[in-house]
Amino acid sequence: MPATREAVVxxxxxPVSIIIVGVGNTDFSDMRALDEExxxxxxxxxxxxxxxxxxxxxxxxxxxx
Length: 65
What we know:
Layout: H1 2-11, E1 18-22, H2 29-34, E2 42-43, E3 46-47, E4 53-57
């Protein structure tokens, strides 16, 4: 997870967005941690330039139609 967090912080300076779709009934706490809404994503003391991660748990939307 530290390498992923570092990659997200580095990518936050680029014109990119990351969308993560959680499929199944597993624990997605690590994915939710990457989708910090308050913009406090950090790695090695370096703060993300902007919020680029959106996590969507599929099970919350699969019956909506």
